[in-house]
Amino acid sequence: MRRYLGIKGFHLPWSRRDDTQNEYTFVDYFLKYFLFLCNLTFTILGLVVLGLGMWGLISKESFAQEQIGSIGTDPMLILVSLGFVLTLLCLSGCVGALRENCSLLKLFSAAVLMLITAQVLAAILAYSLQDQVGGYLRSGMLSAMVRYQDDLDLRFIVDEIQSNLQCCGAENYLDWEVNIYYNCSSPGVLACGVPATCCVDPLENGTVWNSQCGVGAQQLDEFTAQSVIFLGGCLGGISRWIEQHEGLIGTVAVVVLGVQILTVFISTRLLESIQWHKAYM
């Protein structure tokens, strides 16, 4: 019986309970600071994303009275929302782990669990509606092309897609008719043309960017146009890119989901340990 006997504040060195407590203490400290450092890293990342989004809105004067009505469709708002949610979520986990705050850890665990559920449901929904995804992509691409000259963010996105995938328009180069500046009825110099990122070789002499290389391209027949611009649309290019990188996309998705599940496990284990220590220590 003396084997498990001890004085308040002192445990006998051969006590089995004391050895267990020491083991749990080491594991708990490891989980605590591991969770803290991980959340601190993602909190900083969230602040960077939030800062970039706010910088984009401010630099474009999106908060000006004449433009405030269209701020809801500004792509920079996605960065602001993503950065804010990421910062708030990871900050709760960061402070909860460091201060051993059960309420914040519960909030963090519940939020990550909801995020995991939403991602799984979104994947299932996307798989079940894969035949309609192409229609949504086409609608989004055409909408971006309509606002190409008026929104710098959409112009950047469309240019990056067309340059990297070597494509032009949604389904073909004639889709640029939807833009009022490239429409053949337009009185401007861009009428019946396409952006320079549609051009096969937009550089003159290999050094100077020729922004007028796509002028009048819509008036050319396909045989003549193929030596000047890319004829294929970007929807087909996006589909081919996904097919070529589906293994990498799947791996990244599994890793991200696994990290989130591991985070929930660690936070739950740490929460149980904190509650146990508060109850028995």
TrEMBL record:
Transmembrane segments: 33-55, 76-98, 104-129, 248-271
Molecular function in Gene Ontology: enzyme binding
SUPFAM superfamilies in the record: Tetraspanin
CDD domains: oculospanin_like_LEL
Membrane topology qualifier: Multi-pass membrane protein
Cysteine disulfide links: C168-C184
Keywords: Cell membrane, Disulfide bond, Glycoprotein, Membrane, Transmembrane, Transmembrane helix
Cited function: Part of TspanC8 subgroup, composed of 6 members that interact with the transmembrane metalloprotease ADAM10. This interaction is required for ADAM10 exit from the endoplasmic reticulum and for enzymatic maturation and trafficking to the cell surface as well as substrate specificity. Different TspanC8/ADAM10 complexes have distinct substrates.
Family the UniProt entry places it in: Belongs to the tetraspanin (TM4SF) family.
Oligomer status and interactors: Interacts with ADAM10.
Name used for this protein in its record: Tetraspanin
Source organism of this protein record: Sparus aurata
